[in-house]
Amino acid sequence: MTLSFRFLLIVTVAAQALRWTVAQVVGPSWTASPFHPHAIPLAVRSPYLNCWAAGGNGSQPISNQWPTLWDMSGILGWAVFVRVDGIAYRILGQAPLTNGAQVANQTGFSFSATQSKFVHTAGNVMVTTNFISPIEPTNLVLQSLPAIYLAISTQSTDGRPHSIQVYSDISAEWISGDDTLTAQWSTNTTSSSVIHSVHLGITQPFAVLKNHIQDATAYYGTMNGGAVTWQTSADVISRSQFMGSGQLTNTSDTNFRPVSQNFPVFALSTDLGMVANSNGPVVFALGLIRDPAIQSLSDTGQPESRSLYFWTAFSTPIDAIAQFISDFSRAASAANSFDSNIRNAAMAVSSDYADLVDLSTRQVYGMIEITVGKDANGNWNTNDIQAFMNDAGGGVSTVDIIYPAFPLFLQTNPVIAGALLKPLLQWQQGNGYPNPFAAHDLGTLYPNAVGDPMDNTVMPVEESANMLIMTLAQARASGDGTLVSNYYNVLDKWAQYLVSNAMNPGDQDFTDSFLTGSVVNDTNLALKGILGIQAMAGIASAMNNTDAAANYSSIASTLLNQWQSLAFSQDGSHLVLGFGNISSSLSLPYNLYADKLLGLNLIPQTVYDKAAAFLKTQTQTYGVALDSRSANASKTDWALFTAAALTDTDARNTLISSVRKYAANQLAHVPFSDFYDVSQGARISFQARPVQGAMYSVLALQASTKPIVIPPPSPSTTSPSLPSPSLGLSPSASPRNAAARTQVVSHNLFMMLTIALGITAGAL
Questions:
Q1: b/e string for 391-421 if b means 16 or more Cβ within 10 A?
Q2: Of 8, 570, 636, 729, whose CB is crowded by the most CB atoms within 10 A?
Q3: DSSP-assigned states of every residue in 210-278
Q4: Considering only CA atoms, which of 85, 168, 165 is closest in space to residue 123?
Q5: Helix axes 488-501, 460-478, angle to 10 degrees
Q6: 3 state DSSP class of 150
Q7: pLDDT at 723
Q8: Contact call for residues 208 and 308 (beta carbons, < 8 A)
């Protein structure tokens, strides 16, 4: 993190705090359950199929705003109209109204883990619009397919039948960050479905522009039938056609052109006829698919293009989207079950906690992609499952972003947790990464996961401990010791680094250095390093290496005793920021969490008791400050880690409720931000980041663990073979020392340049 960026963040903190001291909250005019968030997820299934509606104070209903990408900058053209008794009512977007059309009145909104529902009145008809981003973590075929449902139901409010038609379209704005580029499109019609597809005429593999991937094809489809019509044309033509007549022309515009030139749209409509009572929904499916999806390195260090896992079950994207459409009834039921199960589990903690779990789930899953590799014969290797995370800033699988997100994956499917770790472990056990400590990430140009052997951003103690903690946590949650076994050597190397450096990290960068810089011998960082050593004891024990396990455990205990003598204020009341810091300094002790997550029982109860008692004296309106350098700045992920670790239920619930209060305060208009002001409740920076998986931190502690089973060595591969999921469609040394940063020039740099410059013609 550069000094200039740190300075910018410090200025931002001050400016935001000043701005929001005079802010007034103007609530929406419709009901919201459980609350009205800063932004509302609409289609959130991948880093690029990641569409939101603005929320917050004074926000517009979805019938009067265009959806945007997660960064809230570029419009994603998406329109919905419902026509009642000859009058069209706009439900989604800001398309101009013609032929006497009106804006529907939004009267209600609710969200759950996978769904966002809106209620509008359109004449004497109630319209329910449900955006479903399915989460089916135990079925990797379905979970890896970047597609969502839009389901629109209608019901008469006066008991009389009404003539109803439903319309929706998307524009080509979904496929590029540059609206001057030319789009091409086609429409596939069968007896069962109508599916539009649109892509750039010239695609750029693995290239990203304004957070849009430049090589994807967007698909928009619905079930076919006698009452279904479709059209591709300029936006004003299709929409006006429907507003006037209630149907489309079943014709294609063959004039391929730039995205913003007479905006081409891809429209679908259904005539429901006369409707008196509630009817089954009109269902639209939206997908955004590219292949290959990830550029990475193989276990031998060679360039490798990886595909999304759903390709193991489908031969074409059209096949996948058609099956997705026909699978709606089952998928909707599965979404309801997932939502109910997650909320019921979280409600056992508190309703405030359940609300945070619901809000965070799509945001986290929407920033990962699950991929599959091929064997030597070019066939899908369904044992080679790797997942990659976009940190909502371009970073690829940033370790200290995966770490706070990890509880969600441990809770919902530890196989995915392992798939996130595998590419990091694989790359660093090879010859491409020379350092004795763990890397920060797999690159800074998602989806290019080629690693950075020069490792210009390093957090040695932070990331080494994170990797050890996560690897043991995944093995305990899954019972699968494959990662532990296959990557024992690199894990042991990192543990040895921690033995030498955990208690004396110096001025190393760590995950919160962006705030005001590093802290010499940071108390919280040293604790994480010690817990990382104890995690290695657990890893060695799983490998039946009893001598190493006993040795690492003894070292961790010794270091913890030293840590306790240095970490507290003079009066012993609280943890200070760094060893030897003045007693008035303080730090949010979120790294206690790993002791609870792994069941280490290394930290004495007195430490937890003191932490809880002191935090109760520091709680402001929206929580507790991250540390004494930051005045009122804090982070939601670390607040939830701290809350989960505390054995004082009152202190835990107070922290949880303060974060929920921030999430519901309507003082921002972006997807759930993790960096905020605990005094005024203002967002400071960041948005849509997967770190909000930390909302699952309490649930992850309650999950059962399994004995770790070490698989027999495989002579054919040195990389872990994660459990195969169902293929069916049923639910089922200081881095500032140049000597510690050996720079290696390899083909990886050439790969990054090749990726950045490569352009190929064609599309899916």
A1: bbebbbbbbbbbbbbbbbbbbbbbbbbbbbb
A2: 636
A3: TTEESS-EEEEEEE--TTEEEEEEEHHHHHHHHHHHSS---B-----EETTSS-EEEEEEEEEEEE-S-
A4: 85
A5: 140
A6: strand
A7: 36
A8: no
CB atoms within 10 A of CB 390: 27
d(CA 420, CA 162): 51
User: Tokens standing for 655?
Assistant: 């922290």
- Residue whose pair of structure tokens reads 């509008």 in the numeric block: 120
Nearest-angstrom CA–CA distance, 708 and 485:
10
Q: Which residues of the chain have pLDDT under 70?
A: 1-27, 58, 516, 714-764
Asked whether 719 and 480 are in contact (CB, 8 A), the reply is no
Determine how β-strand 102-103 pairs with β-strand 115-122: unpaired
Percent helix, strand, coil in the chain, to 5, is 35, 25, 40
d(CA 454, CA 442): 11
Letter for the amino acid at 324?
F
Strand order from edge to edge, sheet including 193-200: 31-33, 105-111, 115-122, 125-132, 147-156, 282-289, 217-223, 193-200, 182-189, 257-258
Query: If 0-12 CB within 10 Å is exposed, 13-18 middle and 19+ buried, where does residue 639 land?
Result: buried
Given a contact cutoff of 8 angstroms between Cβ atoms, the answer to whether 463 and 451 are in contact is no
The whole-number pLDDT of residue 301 equals 79
Stated as kind and residue range, the H or E segment containing 676 is strand 675-677
- C-alpha dihedral, 255 to 256 to 262 to 264, nearest 10°: 100
Burial, 423: exposed, middle or buried (Cβ in 10 Å; 0-12, 13-18, 19+)? Answer: buried
Beta strand pairing call for 125-132 and 147-156: antiparallel
How far is residue 100 from each of residues 86, 95, 105, measured CA to CA in Å? 9, 13, 16
Residue 433 has a pLDDT of: 87
User: How many CB atoms are closer than 10 A to CB 479?
Assistant: 14
Q: Are 157 and 117 in contact (CB under 8 A)?
A: no
Distance CA 631, CA 279 (A): 55
Select from 148, 93, 136 the least CA-distant residue to 309.
136
Round to whole Å and give the CA distance between 680 and 329. Answer: 44
The first and second tokens of residue 351, run together, are 């309703």
Count of positions (residues) in the chain = 764
267 class by beta-carbon count within 10 Å (0-12 exposed, 13-18 middle, 19+ buried):
buried
Q: Where are the alpha helices (DSSP H) in 101-234?
A: 140-143
Alpha-carbon separation of residue 579 from 363, 481, 502, 563, 609 (angstroms): 37, 37, 12, 9, 20
Q: Phi/psi at 66 (nearest 5 deg)? A: -85, 140
CA angle 641/645/651 to nearest 5° reads: 95
Phi, psi angles (nearest 5°) of residue 762: 95, 180
Predicted pLDDT at 27: 59
Hey, how many other C-beta atoms are within 10 angstroms of the C-beta on 102?
Answer: 15
**Using an 8 Å Cβ cutoff, are 172 and 264 in contact?**
yes
Q: Are 328 and 151 in contact (CB under 8 A)?
A: yes
Alpha carbon distance 245, 439 (integer Å): 60
